[in-house]
């Protein structure tokens, strides 16, 4: 006798239920939850382990590296073995790694545990989205993915507030116990609501070899590479902010974890609103123009931040204004850049998404420790990274992915 109670079936006609969409939103929230809940605790981790800001930020690097690798491997693996069991396995890994993070005695082991946490999260995230792509088609697929992205944008807003609340009542290790508990809830939700969406007859044995061939093909498209750089270079400023803002606003400007988390949440809200405005502008204003506006805002924010860091001592209001402008710019750049990249290679939607995700998360992982090289009492590396990210993103848009009209003229 088989237990079918915990084996949901595919809804007839390929429809996607509201409960399944809700569970996928929950599963894809693992990245902002595991990142933004933990960021307010950076100064405490630095103090407890007697380490440096750069080493603490390496715990972000290993998490992002795990996220990228998990997505890269998890997608092709689930194409071969199905969705449900690999998804559950990834969620279990998130739980176990979160518990390990709560027990680690030094920053080196914390880096290792965070890598596993990121790997499990990236693995679960890419498979959860693949379930929606398996089951929904046409307009329903577009609606489902938009709902997932829109509601998922709330996670970066509430995560730092939740993290600050946890810090108020417990130490930084308590954050990982909360993440472990959330992981258990994710596992239960997946068991109850996520079906096996890829029948055996539809699975293929191509795996990573097929992915590598397709990746080589899309990376041979200059405009695709340009738009990937547009979106990924913008991540330089974004994750320099994630890695250093706690030190700049708390250590240098005296905010407590709750005040910092309110600022962080407001900035995430600015990015979400900018993304929604960008969506409203679609079809009315050129997407390239929207991206360029975001790049200019990001560049100006970087210049002002550098001036403030070098000559003004990075005053609180200046830092807060630059951070808000930076995050608003991300809402105009990142999603639009990714959409234009995918549009360049419509024959390989899954591969283009995986390549973009891998490069973005790898960029995030590299940036985090670089941002902390100057220590926890300077904003100069942060400002330089903001400038570099804005300029590199503009290079991708204006040079590599220049408009077809400009290309024809040349």
Main beta-sheet strand count, sense and barrel state: none
- Distance between termini? 70 Å
**CATH H-level superfamily title of the largest domain:** MFS general substrate transporter like domains
SSE run: HHHHHHHHHHHHHHHHH
Oligomer state equals single chain
The outline comes out as globular
Per CATH, what is the topology of the largest domain? Growth Hormone, Chain: A
Q: Please give the CATH class of the largest domain.
A: Mainly Alpha
Radius of gyration: 21 Å
Give an account of the 3D structure.
The chain has 410 residues and is mostly helical. The protein has helices at 18-28, 30-36, 42-49, 53-81, 84-103, 107-135, 138-152, 155-169, 172-193, 207-219, 222-251, 257-281, 287-312, 316-344, 349-371, 380-400, 404-409. The protein has 2 domains: 15-199, Growth Hormone, Chain: A (Up-down Bundle), CATH 1.20.1250.20; 220-401, MFS general substrate transporter like domains (Growth Hormone, Chain: A), CATH 1.20.1250.20. The longest helix is centred in the middle third of the chain and has 30 residues, at 222-251. The protein is globular. The N and C termini lie far apart (70 Å).
């Amino acid at each position: 006798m088989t237990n079918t109670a915990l084996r949901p079936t595919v809804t007839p006609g390929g429809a996607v239920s509201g409960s399944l969409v809700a569970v996928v939103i929950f599963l894809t929230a693992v990245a902002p939850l595991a990142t933004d809940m933990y960021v307010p605790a950076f100064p405490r981790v630095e103090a407890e382990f007697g380490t440096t800001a750069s080493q603490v930020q390496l715990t972000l690097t290993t998490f992002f590296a795990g996220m990228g690798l998990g997505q890269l491997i998890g997608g092709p693996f689930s194409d071969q073995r199905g969705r449900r069991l690999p998804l559950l396995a990834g969620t279990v890994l998130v739980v176990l790694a979160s518990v390990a993070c709560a027990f680690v005695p030094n920053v080196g082991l914390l880096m290792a545990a965070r890598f596993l946490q990121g790997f499990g999260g990236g693995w679960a995230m890419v498979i959860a989205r693949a379930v929606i792509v398996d089951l929904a088609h046409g307009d329903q697929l577009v609606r489902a993915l938009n709902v997932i992205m829109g509601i998922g944008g709330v996670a970066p807003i509430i995560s730092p507030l939740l993290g600050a609340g946890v810090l108020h009542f417990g130490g930084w290790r308590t954050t990982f116990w909360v993440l472990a508990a959330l992981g258990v809830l994710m596992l239960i939700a997946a068991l109850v609501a996520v079906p096996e969406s890829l029948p055996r007859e539809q699975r293929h044995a191509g795996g990573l070899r097929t992915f590598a061939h397709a990746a080589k093909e899309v990376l041979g498209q200059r405009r695709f590479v340009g738009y990937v750089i547009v979106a990924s270079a913008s991540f330089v400023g974004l994750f320099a902010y994630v890695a250093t803002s706690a030190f700049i606003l708390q250590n240098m400007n005296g905010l407590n974890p709750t005040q910092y988390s309110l600022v962080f949440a407001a900035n995430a809200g600015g990015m979400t609103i900018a993304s929604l405005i960008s969506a409203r502008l679609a079809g009315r204003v050129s997407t390239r123009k929207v991206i360029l506006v975001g790049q200019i805002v990001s560049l100006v924010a970087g210049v002002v931040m550098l001036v403030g860091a070098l000559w003004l001592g990075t005053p609180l209001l200046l830092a807060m204004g630059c951070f808000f402008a930076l995050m608003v710019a991300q809402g105009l750049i990142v999603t639009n850049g990714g959409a234009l990249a995918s549009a360049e290679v419509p024959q390989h939607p899954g591969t283009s998404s995986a390549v973009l995700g891998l490069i973005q998360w790898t960029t995030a992982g590299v940036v985090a420790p670089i941002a902390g090289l100057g220590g926890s009492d300077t904003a100069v590396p942060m400002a330089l990274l903001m400038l570099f990210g804005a300029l590199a993103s503009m290079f991708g848009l204006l040079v590599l992915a220049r408009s077809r009209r400009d290309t024809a003229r040349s």
